[in-house]
Design a protein that fits this description.
64% helix, Multidrug efflux transporter AcrB transmembrane fold, 12 strands, 752 residues, elongated, alpha+beta, single chain
Length: 752
């Protein structure tokens, strides 16, 4: 009867796995910068209002192309090729607008008539000298589209929003192919869509590497443990099916794999294998004790099934606590990881029971030589732990104190490009744009009049804005500055025949009013709406910065605040930095802010589970100390390795805590069984140590093999997650084999 039931279970699981292939085929890979913005956040709400006010939603969808000519830009063949590329990009699908020196017209008034001529007269080389002098004397062009050394031109294009992967690839490949066909001396291409595509391709590549390495390491560990290739197949199938079902769930709910959720397969594989090893070693132990196969299986599930469920709950809790964050990808990762663990738990428990029911007794049961070596090692270890218990506690106290000190040195810092592999050519492109041009980080600031009766239509108020822009450029390093000030300066220059010296604010309010009306009669009307509200009380200044870290931008913000207040501008104006870069910085702060909340929630649930096991309040001390210390040591490792707290590394503490406590739950569960036999506390601890020690060591090795797989990642964040959690797990193993038995011996009092 049991065998029929087991076959039915396997058949149902197999059928569901086949059905899982249906949604799995539609699984997407995604990297969307906007999804990293903190949800329900006042800064996000302000940015959305800012975008609506100034119709600036499109401005983040930039494509910047730097074209270098070693002999200078004023060479006809170079300008012809640049113009050809500009016209080619204009005609591409999903391109909205393009800015290029070769397509820019110089507009000026002469004898009250509007005149226009090309800024660069490409077909008239005899005029290149005059055009060159004019161009380099014109700040509005020189600062935007010409490099500092005068040997490169930039083309700025803007693509439509919400493009799919194929559309992004078509744009990038078309531009790249055209550039290579034109044979420029050198070119550099930076674009938001390019960064997104690089992330997606790296996610796909890393996922394959994770799976290959983690399954290979797990196979080696299982072979060493069970000495049988046949015994390896079933655990690997359990792992594969668990991962498949979890990925199918992600696809079924309409979500995609991103940088964070791509870590799920190796994590699930390692934790799933941990449950398999605990159950299998306990089953083998019962068989060696002389029980029949049925009795051994029944006893194993009765004694260890609940403990395994508890450990599943503690680890899942670590992931579910990520749900308190307001960053959608992190929240999704926590939900799918926690849900995936319960899926893996159910598949493991059902499949292993069916497998052991249908298969003969494993041959490893009759090979006791290796088991004797384990027993001798664990007995020796336990003896020395108890003998030197006070020395161990003293050393641990010192290590914990030093770790706490080092943790205070950890800094919150990151930048988007930090995650891109160092050898990726896009980093050279971004570096070029930062050294030869203004940079690629969008800069946005809004100025608002506090007295609504006074507006930015007044000349004196625009002069204040001009002073602010000078400070932003000279003291803060903001380039490519555009605002209503630059538009009014351009109008003043145009009305004075295009004289470069006239690129300044008009000298009278009457001229300002006249220029404002004139601007709305030209193609620049849309630009004015992008930078000045209709009522004149709100104004936008945009620009570009290098790819600054959070820490570097914070210094700029502090410097600006000091300047703003020292000039008493705060009495008439208010300001706010905004934009996608600011929101990405805010996301990192948001995650680190929720860091301790997640750990506390995790600790409360873990403490509750521990209390349910042994029904004694002192058990809380026993659980917390050996599992908090690994977190402290992991934090100390972060400080010593100069690893910053950022979006990805901030999630590891809650995750690591939930995983580290796994072995403690198994230890306490077995201790409860030993105490129920009427054994004395010291002897019960020894029996627990000898019986669970092997499983704890082996499961830790398996977990390490899973997380150390992440060391192969090309993403810096994933690499550090793998490294730091591995440090935590190894430390937790040492704590489990030393501190936990000592604390139980010293603090746990049996109820008689």
């Amino acid at each position: 009867m049991e065998k029929i039931k087991s076959r039915r279970i396997i058949f149902v699981l197999l059928l569901l796995t086949i059905f899982a292939f249906i949604p799995l085929r539609s699984l997407r890979f995604e990297f969307n910068i906007e999804k990293l913005f903190p949800r329900d956040d006042e800064d996000l709400a302000f940015f959305q209002q800012f975008q609506e006010q100034f119709e600036s939603q499109q401005d983040d969808e930039f494509i910047l192309i730097g074209l270098k000519n070693n002999s200078g830009i004023f060479k006809q063949d170079f300008l012809v090729k640049t113009d050809s590329l500009t016209k080619f990009i204009v005609k591409l699908d999903n391109i909205i607008k393009v800015y290029s020196l070769t397509s820019t017209n110089l507009i000026y008034f002469q004898n009250e008539e509007v005149n226009a001529r090309p800024l660069l007269r490409i077909t008239q080389p005899g005029l290149y000298t005059a055009d060159s002098i004019y161009l380099f004397a014109s700040n509005e062009y020189r600062d935007l589209l010409v490099s500092k050394d005068g040997k490169s031109i930039a083309i700025a294009a803007f693509n439509k929003r919400f493009l799919n992967d194929d559309q992004k690839d078509r744009i990038l490949n078309s531009i790249r192919n055209k550039i290579e066909q034109l044979k420029f001396d050198k070119y550099h291409l930076t674009a938001k869509i390019r960064v997104e595509r690089i992330y997606v391709k790296e996610i796909q590549k890393n996922l394959a590497i994770y799976l290959i390495i983690s399954l290979s390491l797990i196979s080696i560990t299982l072979f060493i443990l069970f000495k049988s290739i046949k015994t390896i197949i079933t655990p690997l199938l359990i792992v594969a099916v668990s991962i498949m079902w979890t990925l199918a769930l992600i696809a079924l709910t309409g979500h995609a794999l991103d940088v964070i959720s791509s870590l799920l397969p190796p994590i699930l594989a390692a934790i799933c294998m941990s449950d398999i090893i605990h159950i299998s070693t306990h089953y083998i132990e019962n068989l060696r004790a002389g029980l029949s196969k049925k009795e051994a299986l029944t006893k194993t599930y009765r004694e260890i099934g609940l403990a395994t469920f508890y450990t599943c709950c503690t680890v899942a809790t670590g992931f579910f606590t990520l749900g308190i964050t307001d960053i959608i990808p992190i929240r999704n990762f926590g939900f799918f990881a926690g849900t995936g663990l319960f899926i893996a738990y159910g598949i493991t428990m059902l499949t292993l029971h069916a497998f052991y029911t249908l298969s003969p007794i494993p041959k490893i049961v009759y090979e006791k030589k290796a088991e004797h070596r384990w027993s001798r090692f664990l007995a020796f270890s336990f003896k020395n732990v108890i003998r030197h218990k006070y020395l161990i506690l003293g050393l641990i106290t010192i290590v914990a104190a030093v770790s706490v000190y080092l943790i205070t040195k950890i800094e919150i810092n990151s930048s988007l490009l930090q995650e891109i592999p160092k050898k990726n050519p896009v980093l050279d492109d971004y570096k070029f744009m930062e050294t030869d041009f203004a940079g690629t980080r969008p800069f946005e600031i809004e100025l608002a009049r506090q007295d609504k009766k006074s507006t930015f239509f007044e000349l004196q108020n625009l002069k204040t804005v001009e002073d602010i822009e000078v400070f932003l450029k000279d003291s803060c390093g903001v380039g490519n500055l555009i605002s209503p000030v630059s538009l009014f300066k351009g109008a003043n220059k145009a009305f004075r025949g295009g004289d470069t010296a006239s690129f300044r604010l008009p000298q009278s309010q009457q001229d300002l009013n006249r220029f404002y009306e004139a601007i709305f009669q030209t193609e620049y009307a849309e630009e004015m709406r992008h930078y000045l509200s209709a009522d004149g009380t709100r104004l936008r200044i945009s620009g570009r910065l290098p790819n600054l870290t959070i820490k570097e931008f914070k210094k700029i913000a502090e410097k600006f605040e000091e300047f703003f207040t020292s000039k008493s501008y705060d009495k008439a104006l208010s300001y706010q930095f905004t934009g996608s870069a600011v929101l990405l910085d805010k996301a990192t702060y948001s995650l680190t802010k929720n860091l301790f909340t997640g750990i506390i929630i995790d600790a409360i649930i873990i403490a509750l589970i521990a209390f349910l096991l042994l029904r004694h309040w002192r058990i809380l001390i026993i659980v917390m100390i050996p599992n908090v210390i690994p977190l402290l040591i992991m934090g100390a490792a972060m400080a010593m390795l100069n690893i910053n707290l950022k979006a990805d590394t901030s999630v590891i503490f809650a995750i690591a805590f939930g995983i580290a406590v796994d072995d403690t739950i198994h230890f306490l569960s077995r201790l409860k069984l030993e105490l129920a036999k009427g054994l004395s506390l010291p002897y019960a601890i020894k029996r627990t140590y000898l019986s669970t020690g092997k499983a704890i060591i082996v499961t830790t090795i398996v977990l390490l093999s899973g997380f150390m797989t992440l060391l192969s990642s090309s993403f810096g964040g994933a690499f550090y997650i793998g490294l730091l959690i591995s440090v935590c797990l190894f430390t937790a193993l040492l704590m489990e084999l030393s501190v936990t038995p000592i604390l139980i011996l010293l603090f746990y009092k049996r109820k008689h």
